[in-house]
Amino acid sequence: MQKSPQLNSHGELQHLLTIEGLPRDVLTHILDAAAPFSEVAEREVKKVPLLRGKSVFNLFFENSTRTRTTFEIAAKRLSADVINLNINTSSANKGETLLDTADNLAAMQADMFVVRHASSGAPFLIAQHMAATGRDHIHVVNAGDGRHAHPTQGLLDMYTIRHYKTDFTQLTIAIVGDVLHSRVARSQIHALTTLGVPEVRVIAPKTLLPTGIERLGVRVFHDMREGLRGVDVVMMLRLQNERMQGALLPSTQEYFKSYGLTPEKLALAKPDAIVMHPGPMNRGVEIDSAVADGGQAVILPQVTFGIAVRMAVMAMLAGN
Amino acid sequence: MKIHIRNGRLIDPASKTDKALDLFIAAGRIVGVGHAPAGFEANSVLDATGCIVCPGLVDLAARLREPGFEYRATLESEMAAAAAGGVTRLACPPDTDPVLDEPGLVEMLTHRARLPDFAHVHPVGALTLQLEGKALTEMAELAEAGCVAFGQANRAIVDTQVLLRAMMYAATFDFPVWLQAQDPFLARKGVAHDGEVAARLGLAGIPVAAETIALATILHLARETGARVHVTRISSAAGVEMIVAARAAGIAVTCDVAIHHLHLCEMDVGFFDAHARLDPPLRSQRDRDALRAGLVSGAINALCSDHTPVDDDAKQMPFEEAEVGATGLELLLPLTLKWAQEMNLPLVTALARVTSDPAHILGVKAGRLALGAAADICVFDPAAEFRVTRENLRSQGKNTPFLGFELPGRVRYTLIDGHLAFDGTLS
Which residues of chain B have pLDDT under 50? Predict the structure, then answer.
């Protein structure tokens, strides 16, 4: 087995590519480090100088407004110079390769790449290429790659859970929805199992679960009511509209009926259960508005915490 | 030219010989095994001390990338790789550009390949025009031009009626049909074995059922048509079981496995190593173990390199976008030896899978060291190590998941029709 490409030769975190394989103390350290950053946002001058003089390139090969914006805010609050690049890979005229793009930006003295890409593993390729060409001063943060990982989302979810629930080792947590296509779910599962959550459940129809998902340490439920019984946290996943094609699901209506989170189904969870969603939500598809806007939802705090967690990650990787 | 190969350990799987015997060659043929014919005077003596002398390897799948993909490899580069790997005879799949579906193209390829340093080339003709799975090719004409079998490379015939008719037509002339068993619908968009690793890495999976369903179709139609079917690149335990059962039921079917699937499994995808992006995908450890055992028992008839040189640009991409395939001509022998060591297999049995057995599938009298046979010979040092590096590979394709491996066995001499095509003592 190759050495994890996110660690440098001293075993320190050089890039953040996936949560899988990160030790518990590293995760805890990031969550601890994020706490003071959430206070920065409360100040009149919302800036600290940790990345002053550093150039952060947001390299988005796939559209995303929210994630790109939160990364941009995080980097700016750390006083970095932020350059946003939206590179449309869907255009027929493919142009330069991923590594050529990375090389060109590296030549512009980039210090960090925040990469979003439709193909699983794309940020690994960039990180491995930087290592192979001796550019150890460049850090890569995975901002979502294909179906594989979205580590900062996973971390901000952990931060949110810790904020409301304190002790991971006492929790039962359900992840609901399209696990098959979800990089968020994979990062959540690795984070939760690493942090010692004794029972992580996934709830979905068989068509939306990858083969062998149990081996990641989760309990599989197909009946949402059964799966939600007694849980402390409900983590909803986004269902993309294109999943209605290709014989994965018959209709959004039927999906909502079986797997949509309604107040009635949520009542099966613990009374103090929280409801999370990585956004953007499809109201009436995976979540009922009454739940999304209800008292148990912590969906907007997730967004706020996301900035602090991303600041912590960036500061940890490239901080002065 | 008269050559004496002396002091070697001669292994000839066809005659089950494994003995210290010298070999004598004249006019491109073997004229003496053990002792020289009367009046033999060698022009050249090749020292095989410490070496094994065996038939040149016969590889059932080597893409030479000509015509059409010369930026990936050329006949010259890949024939040098073949000779360096001890391969003296190879079959090349029809997925060139243009596809090998016209006699003229086949004639041109075989003509271009007819050089003394070059391995014997047997083109596999396209079973359908453009490999599109719609219309039959002129198989009789293609056979006259030199095709030994007809296949689809790794493109499926979706329409089962076309498949049935293609097999019927081939069976009319007793032409062998070589087919890869992979259902294109179940494999659609898939890039890795549908299992734990694909689940973890977020890669779209190709289930084992893609192989077994296609295999069931092929085997049923083989029985129906009486076509001589060879299944290429089997990848799963379930697939091997089906082959065994089909043979027990009287269906004439042979199959092969690629070196990659014999040694690697889904775990070797590691952190998105594009070199491990192969077709069919590397499957589970259990599948790999069944392939290894199946090749020992003979359930799988032959081991091939599935040599597919790919340029760096097409590999330095995210896993799912990278081109499939790996270079392999120079790894066929070392990986055969590694498998034999690990399975505790006598070399005479192991080498059969890359010499006499694939020659039998090709339907050619080759892969043996008999008196009068063409002097296609591989002399290798089993104790020497071959370190797989970009520099050590002569193939233009440097793409292999085995980069960095130390493998057993290094070729000292390769002779093709009695001509010294590779001399490892010079490098």
Answer: none
Sign (positive/negative) of CA torsion A35, A41, A44, A49?
positive
> What integer best gives the mean pLDDT of chain B?
97
The CATH classification of domain B56-362, taken from the options 3.20.20.140, 3.20.20.190, 3.30.420.40, 3.60.21.10: 3.20.20.140
The encoded tokens of residue B117 equal 């340093």
Write down the pTM of the prediction.
0.95
Task: Tally Cβ neighbours within 10 Å of residue B102.
Answer: 18
Domain ranges of chain B: 56-362
As for the ipTM of the complex, it is 0.93
* A30-34 LR contacts (CB < 8 Å, sep 24+): A30/A155, A30/A309, A30/A312, A30/A313, A30/A316, A31/A155, A31/A158, A31/A159, A31/A162, A31/A309, A31/A312, A33/A312, A33/A315, A33/A316, A34/A155, A34/A159, A34/A305, A34/A308, A34/A309, A34/A311, A34/A312
> Each residue of A110-164: pLDDT tens digit?
999 999 999 999 999 999 999 999 999 999 999 999 999 999 999 999 999 999 9
What is the spatial order of strands in the sheet that A112-117 belongs to?
A81-86, A55-60, A112-117, A139-145
For A:164-183, CB contacts with B below 8 A are: 183
B285 lies within 8 A of chain A by CB:
no
Domains of chain A: 24-149+306-318 (3.40.50.1370), 151-303 (3.40.50.1370)
pLDDT above 70 covers a percentage of chain A that reads 97
Return the pLDDT at A89. Answer: 58
Tens-digit pLDDT profile for residues B407-422:
999 999 999 999 999 9
Calpha distance B7→B159 (Å, rounded): 56
- d(CA A115, CA A211) in angstroms, rounded, equals 27
Q: Is A295 on the interface with B (CB under 8 A)?
A: no
For residue range A246-303, list pLDDT tens digits in order.
889 999 999 999 999 999 999 999 999 999 999 999 999 999 999 999 999 999 999 9
* Residues of B in Cβ contact (< 8 Å) with A178: none
Answer whether A121 sits within 8 Å of B195, measured CB to CB. no
Distance from CA of B280 to the nearest CA of A (A): 18
